[in-house]
Design goal:
This protein is mostly helical. It has nine helices and five strands; from the N terminus they run H-E-E-E-E-E-H-H-H-H-H-H-H-H.
Length: 201
């Protein structure tokens, strides 16, 4: 039984009013994030521990709780938007921009590309949870993907955000973000990359 199955059983058999979110059920949408015994997880892919009679379920940390396990994700997405999270093409291109499949650039991008915006890393970051002045690991991971992409023309403005007051220097390298990512990404490594890129620029 997955944690989501447990919640659906509780809703069906015990408390029809319990509030929680889910959608895809296959770890693609990121909407079912919550904390199981203090650890941020996707409810749809996390088994209920079999060796215990009770578990503790809490909403995502660092975001306002709307009801039960439902949080307001707007602060998370506001931070995400600060890094211009989409590719900005170079002006005047006459041919398609290409990244070679077996290049170091492609490998660097691919290793951090699969973020689903679940906010598990944000929830597990003591800095993001404790204050509103940190862009957060998900947004900085996305910034790194685009800064590393030679097809993108907005690296300078993203590095300015990463170098700003709420940027990479707020990270304390506790590695909670990397430990909980359900897609196996390493936001802490992305933050290190941005620090090095800042020094080069």
């Amino acid at each position: 039984m997955m944690v989501l199955d447990l919640l659906l059983a509780i809703q069906r058999e015990h408390d029809a009013c319990i509030g929680f979110r889910f959608s895809c059920r296959v770890a693609m949408c990121g909407t079912c994030t919550l904390r199981l015994d203090g650890r941020s997880v996707l409810a749809c892919q996390t088994p209920v521990p079999q060796d215990r009679d009770t578990v503790r379920l809490d909403p995502v940390a660092g975001l306002p709780v709307l009801r039960d396990l439902v949080v307001d994700t707007a602060p998370f997405w506001r931070e995400w938007a600060k890094v211009t999270p989409y590719l900005v093409p170079h002006d005047g291109l006459t041919e398609p921009a290409v990244v070679t499949p077996d290049s170091d650039e492609r490998r660097l991008i691919d290793a951090s590309l699969d973020c689903i915006g679940c906010a598990a890393c944000y929830s597990s970051c003591a800095v993001a949870a404790g204050s509103r002045d940190f862009v957060g690991p998900a947004a900085l991971n996305r910034a790194m993907v685009l800064v590393a992409d030679s097809r993108d023309a907005a690296a300078e403005q993203r590095l300015a955000v990463a170098d700003g007051a709420g940027g990479v220097d707020r990270c304390h390298y506790v590695y909670g973000c990397s430990a909980v990512c359900p897609k196996g990404l390493d936001p802490a490594a992305a933050i290190r990359y941005l620090r090095k890129s800042r020094l080069k620029s």
